[in-house]
Amino acid sequence: MEGSCFPTFITAAYKGALIPIIVASQIMFQVLKIGGNYCMAWSTPPTENQKTRISSTIILLVYIVLAIGSSVCVLVRSLFLATAALEASQRIFTSMLTCIFHAPMSFFDSTPSGRILNRASSDQSTVDTDIPYRLGGLAFAVIQLFGIVIVMSQVAWQVFVVLIPVVIICIWYQVSNTAT
Which residue ranges traverse the bilayer (predicted)? Predict the structure, then answer.
């Protein structure tokens, strides 16, 4: 799969109008997830002898609200991702079918119909199942990485002393090995 197919896929559905909603719902999910973890860490006493800062009922209620909010964000993200994937898939399928129908007769004389059907079905299968979930997985992993970096910068900023050189070495290694 070429990298040029991803921008085509993203803009095929509603000219990419659903992408900001998908990304925003993922960011909101990540914020709520971090908020839930922070709420639990803040409200839990460090030792058994100490009292909790607030009542356990309020802690549970806040955690439930954060969990419901996270679930709604995941639902919105999944619905819009599936909608965008379906619309993009249908548009790309229609475009492919139009190209096949407008092909010259010499194309059908030299290419067996089984090969055309096999290629069309395998390409459509990739568009239907592979591309949207790869793109979604990439976007969600990048957003999660940014969330982790933000939390780490607040909790243990000293990690960046090690992280920055490691990232530079990884990028250098990847660039030097892809050239060969």
Answer: 12-32, 58-80, 131-151, 157-175
Q: Which residue blocks in 13-158 are alpha helix, DSSP H?
A: 19-43, 56-101, 105-110, 113-125, 131-155
Under 8 Å between Cβ of 39 and 62: yes
In order along its 180 residues, the chain shows pLDDT tens digits of: 566 677 878 888 888 899 999 999 999 999 999 988 888 877 877 777 777 777 878 888 988 999 999 999 999 999 999 999 899 889 888 988 999 889 999 888 888 888 988 988 888 888 888 888 888 898 899 999 888 888 888 888 888 888 889 999 999 999 888 766
How many other C-beta atoms lie within 10 A of the C-beta of residue 124?
A: 15
Hunting for tokens 């709520």 — which residue is that? 32
> What is the signed CA dihedral for 168, 135, 72, 91, rounded to 10 degrees?
160
Interatomic CA distance for residues 26 and 145, integer angstroms: 12
Task: Name residue 46's amino acid.
Answer: P
Position 63, amino acid? Y
